[in-house]
Amino acid sequence: CICLCIVAVGIDVGSTFTDFVLVDAKRELIFTGKQLTTPEDPSVAIIEGLERLVKEAGTTVLELEAVVHGTTLVANTIIERKGARVGLIVTRGFRDSLEMGREIRYDLYDLFFEKPNPLVPRYLRLEIDERVDSLGQILRALNENELQRVAKQLVDDGVEAIAICFMHAYANDVHERRAKEILQSAFPNIPITTSTEVAPEIREYERANTACANAYVLPLMQRYLGGLSDKLSSLGLKPPLSLMQSGGGLASITSGRKAPVHLIESGPAAGATAGAFFGRLTENEHVISFDMGGTTAKMCLIESYEPEHAHEFEAGRIRRFKKGSGLTLKVPVIDLIEIGAGGGSLARVDNMGLLKVGPESAGSNPGPVCYGLGGTQPAVTDADLLLGYLSPEYFLGGEINLDLSLAEKAIEKRLTTATGLLVAEVAAGIHSIVNENMALAARMYIAEKGRDPRRYALIASGGSGPVHAYAMAKLLKIRRIICPLGAGVLSALGFLVAAPGTSAVRSYVSRLDKIDWDRINGLFTQMQEEVVAQIQNAGTGLSTVKMRRSVDMRYSGQGFEIDVPLPDGALVEASGPVIRQSFLDRYKELFGRQVADLAVEAVTWRMYASGLAPNVALNFAGQRNDSELTKKSGRQVYFPETGYLPCKIYNRYALKPGDSFRGPAVIEERESTAVAGPDTTVTIDEHLNLLIDIDPPTQNGCI
Question: Over the stretch 498-509, which tens digit does the pLDDT of each residue have?
Answer without folding.
Answer: 777 788 899 999
